[in-house]
């Protein structure tokens, strides 16, 4: 397993890495105080009762190390992308959701980096020798599943072919251009109508997926911290099912990309 090495990042990722400690703050900024308190209480309860479960996800950026098309504004190059999956609709937890590759820790993982890499290989078939883990983010608690999740930032100049390995776990694997997440036209807020206290979180409406929930919040926080975010309409608030109905079948972000 490759050790963490933030120095291996390309220059266009430096703004994120230099301010990575601010990601948790940016993540929490869009969560109401009442919900933050509920999340904190649920996290403490899980730890106290022994129900705490550790997990990790791989936040893999790919793109050129030296970019001739580097944007003077600091935006990532057009070739830069982010590895995202869509979970199978038959799974018990987070079914059908867009997510970073990742999952629960196994005893032999040796920590969150090992967990994130193992899960990414199992879900996407990625060649782990083609990527470099850079840094880990602060652990975050996800109440619906009870997981304490550590995002592991990583970089690859070229991750090679990726695709669905097990259709019972993963419906889609895609390398999504980072600029698709930055594009204000793709951004909105979504909420779940069954929630008694309505909380709308940042989401991204792409051709083959709606990225929302934990994954959407992390990506939104990353864009803010890296200085990549452009002004967008955060007053565009949609109910989750209505937003999902807008997802099309265009082929911009296909699995098994080379």
TrEMBL record:
GO terms for molecular function: coenzyme A diphosphatase activity; metal ion binding. PROSITE patterns: NUDIX. Gene3D superfamilies: Nucleoside Triphosphate Pyrophosphohydrolase. Keywords: Hydrolase, Magnesium, Manganese, Metal-binding. CDD domains: NUDIX_CoAse_Nudt7 (cd03426). Its cofactor is Mn(2+); Mg(2+). The keyword Manganese applies. It comes from the Bacteria. Residues 51-201 form the Nudix hydrolase domain. This is CoA pyrophosphatase. The lineage of its organism: Bacteria, Bacillati, Actinomycetota, Actinomycetes, Mycobacteriales.
């Amino acid at each position: 397993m490759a050790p963490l090495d933030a120095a291996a990042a390309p220059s266009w990722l430096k703004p994120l890495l230099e301010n990575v400690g601010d990601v948790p703050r940016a993540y929490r900024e869009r969560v109401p105080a009442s919900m933050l308190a509920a999340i904190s209480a649920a996290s403490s309860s899980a730890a106290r009762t022994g129900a705490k479960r550790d997990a990790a996800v791989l936040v893999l950026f790919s793109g050129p190390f030296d970019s001739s098309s580097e944007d003077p504004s600091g935006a990532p190059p057009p070739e830069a992308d982010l590895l995202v999956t869509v979970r199978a609709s038959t799974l018990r937890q987070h079914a059908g959701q867009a997510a970073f590759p990742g999952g629960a820790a196994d005893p032999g993982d040796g920590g969150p980096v090992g967990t994130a890499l193992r899960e990414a290989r199992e879900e996407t078939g990625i060649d782990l020798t083609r990527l470099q883990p850079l840094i880990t983010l602060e652990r975050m608690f996800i109440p619906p599943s009870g997981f304490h999740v550590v995002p592991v930032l990583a970089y690859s100049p070229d991750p090679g072919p990726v695709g669905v390995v097990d259709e019972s776990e993963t419906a889609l694997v895609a390398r999504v251009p980072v600029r698709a997440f930055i594009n204000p036209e793709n951004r909105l807020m979504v909420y779940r109508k069954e929630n008694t206290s309505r909380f709308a979180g940042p989401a991204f409406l792409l051709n083959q997926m709606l990225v929302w929930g934990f994954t959407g919040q992390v990506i939104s926080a990353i864009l803010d911290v890296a200085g990549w975010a452009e002004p967008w309409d955060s007053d565009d608030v949609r109910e989750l099912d209505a937003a999902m109905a807008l997802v099309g079948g265009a082929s911009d972000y296909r699995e098994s990309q080379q």
